[in-house]
Amino acid sequence: MSINKKAIAVFLAVTFVAMGFLSLPYLLHPKLLNTGDLNLLTLLMFTPALGVFVVVAGRRKLGDITQDVPEDELDKTGYILFKRAGLLRPEGGWLRVLAWAFAAFFGVLLGVVLTLVLGHVIGLNPVDVIDQPSNVQQSLLGPGADTSRVPDSWVILLGGLISAFLAAFSINALVALGEEIGWRGWLTTALKPLGFWPSAVVIGAIWGLWHAPINAAGYNYPDAPRPVAIVMFILFCVCFGALLQAIRERSQSLWPVAVAHGTLNATVGFFMLVSLDTTGSAWLWFSPNGLLGSVVFLCLALAVKHLGTKTTIGTLDPQDGVV
Q1: Spatial contact of 58 and 13, defined as CB atoms under 8 Å apart
Q2: Nearest Cα to Cα of residue 56 among 3, 1, 14
């Protein structure tokens, strides 16, 4: 099975150009990242899906973009891609997908908690879940405001967990799907001949580099040196991306992957709630999307990939068709 380099090049070109264009407001006015307006950031997450759409639209010029679609099935390529991604009629049924979605949520939540606990235990980044008032709430109240108005820590954490759960299975998952249709969907299938770990490293590095424009504008690691922030996020994307790809392979569906991605987006902010140090260097080294978090998520990826029943990303049955 060969790799369609032309189709991959088109996918990456569309995805990166769209990302660069939509990131210009943040690059020109970095303070926009602090306004709380996430509409443009949400739109950015759909650029990989746009890349897949362009590749599917040009499939006759690009050739077989799904590795094994018969010539007379090319008109069904879009349907076949969705079916193979487990978005339609997933293998094992919807209950299996739902079980993996719950496992993905609690697995990513475990990774976030382990990162915070390890940082505290080894003494590099102390946390306080009892007395530490929410930095987020303090920033909303303004400097010098009455911090007695801040709810108790357990209320903040419980509310955050409930909000994270609801978001991970709804809006966050749908938005994350805009990315995952591209990364763990089409590109993972396109690079399947490389094998799991080589493709996970390649896709993770590409995914991290795709974030470079907004990281250059100050996203993800506040106050950290921009070149270091870009490199660190590439490393994180390789490690966390391996976990997402393992979930994709084991669940045979992108839905649990989208939930996992959405869970991270909903819970990474817990670092600000409980950590006593939330400076740029702390985000780089000890946050869930920093160096320590990268190691934790890589270990989880190894566990998901190598424990239990072995499965692989499904291949297309030539008899598959539109129903």
Answers
A1: no
A2: 14
